[in-house]
Amino acid sequence: MPACKPSTHSPQLDTIRMVEEFIQEHSGEYKRRALWENLPKKMMYQTFKTIIEYLLESGKIASDSRGTICWIHDPDMVRKYSLREDLRFR
Fold it and tell me: At what angle do helices 45-57 and 13-25 cross, to 10 degrees?
């Protein structure tokens, strides 16, 4: 009998976008747990943690020394600097 694999659940795209939009609108207002508790739609905390880790790793959010979550992604700024000839991405 084959061993059972633990299920690897990935959050739905609409759920990730909902969290992104909420963080953008409330940047700097909540710590992680309070952010989860105030989301417009309820979700399991493990799903929320997965989304937060993704947003941290992708450079869209940051957490300050007190644990407050802030939105830091600025696509317009990235676009502006990517067009400059004297700068190169590594």
Answer: 70
Longest dimension (CA), the chain: 60
What's the CA gap between 26 and 71, in Å, rounded? 9
Q: In this predicted model, what pLDDT tens digit does every residue of 27-64 receive, in sequence order?
A: 999 999 999 999 999 999 999 999 999 999 999 999 99
Q: What is the pTM of this model?
A: 0.78
Q: Helix-strand-coil percent breakdown of the chain, rounded to 5?
A: 45, 10, 45
Cα separations in angstroms, 43 against 8, 16, 34, 63, 76: 16, 11, 13, 21, 31
> What backbone phi and psi angles, to 5 degrees, belong to 69?
-90, 130
**Token duo for residue 45:** 């905390």
pLDDT tens readout for residues 18-37: 999 999 999 999 999 999 99
